[in-house]
Amino acid sequence: MKNILRFGFMAIAIMFLFSTFSVTETKAQPVNDILKRMDRYYVKLKSLRANIKREKYESGVDATDKYEGKISLLPGKGRNFSFRLDWTKPSQESISVVNGKYAAYKVSTKTIYTGSSDSKTVGDKGGNVLRMLSMSKDEIKAAYDVYYIGEEKIAGNVATWHLKLVPKTSTSYKFSELWVNGDGAPLMGRITMPNGDTDTIQISGLEENVKLNPSIFKIDYPKGTTVVVG
Fold this sequence. Notes:
The chain is of the alpha+beta class. It is built from four helices and twelve strands.
């Protein structure tokens, strides 16, 4: 089971040595503005196709697993969305989440894993980070104390605002982070665990409101594929 949970996916896998900031009036205003921009961006978003990278760092062995691929996303009711991830590096793996169910197909072993999108498997594959990228302003403020860290450039020269999100209730992770551009698009998310492990997901080359055929979210696999439910 541990090997299953360690598979290269997803996302949103999404790391931190900043000291804690107090929320003052000067800090609260940037936070509110950024969260409002994120809400407006998501409302206008009809579809998304982008490049995606994931870096999963294990502090105990000081090692980082890196993944690259493509993501396609269709927003649904509320903050529900369907997405498909196709990892191409270091190996081929496809993951799809639709209507609360996931499927993950690993080409090298001809195995497909299926189950609830709320399962630990999806979280370990980066799902927790991707969920964070789609949260609304009210959901974020209800679940986290939000701190404005400042302006930062990612991926070389992309300007973003950096937010730190500290859970208000007990969670499996210590805190999370978001890097949001001027349009309100969250371009990078990171989750930091109590032991220092981190999971980071970054998207780039955004193609917004392009036509996506819903059929792409169904993963096809050959006969003889091993099916594992969990």
